[in-house]
Design brief:
The chain has 141 residues and is α+β, with helices and mostly antiparallel strands. The chain has 3 helices and 5 strands. It has a 5-stranded mixed β-sheet. α2 packs antiparallel against α3. The radius of gyration is 16 Å and the shape is elongated.
């Protein structure tokens, strides 16, 4: 097992999401790997997504190294409704499952949606959706 596949996989995820017309139509360029600093009122924030937390486990076989990556993409909306956040979450899910991920190292064997969780944050001013995905990747190095 190696953790060296984590960054190439994140780059591939970012590339797919920023190239997906449905994602960019809703979030524009507001796709991050860390939440942007919040200055001013929460309601002034754009709809955005963050490639976030990840858990990696060994997925090696007798023939080679591999890793299972469970990662989260979180969608944030400064609106009372979940409507736009859910549309963006759906577009992200479709993009990640319909477009082959091509990391600079490793070969993606399987990409799957695992779960989603919605919640209200910041004293009910922000809407958040956490999407969990499972990616199995074989090392090609």
């Amino acid at each position: 097992m190696t953790y060296a596949l984590a960054w190439p996989l994140q780059e591939a995820v970012y590339t797919v999401l920023t190239a997906a017309p449905e994602v960019t139509a809703l979030a524009g360029t507001h796709l991050y790997d860390a939440a942007p600093p919040v200055g001013g009122a929460a309601e002034d924030l754009p709809l955005y997504a963050v490639i976030g937390d990840e858990t990696v486990q060994d997925w090696s076989t007798a023939d080679g190294c591999g890793a299972e990556h469970l990662f989260t993409v979180s969608v944030y909306a400064a609106e009372r409704s979940f409507a736009r956040a859910k549309r963006l979450a759906g577009a992200i899910s479709d993009a990640l499952l319909d477009t082959p991920l091509a990391p600079s190292r490793g070969h993606v064997v399987c990409a799957a949606f695992v779960s989603a969780r919605t919640r209200r944050e910041e004293r009910d001013r922000l809407r958040r959706i956490d999407l969990r995905f499972r990616i199995l990747i074989e090392d090609t190095a």
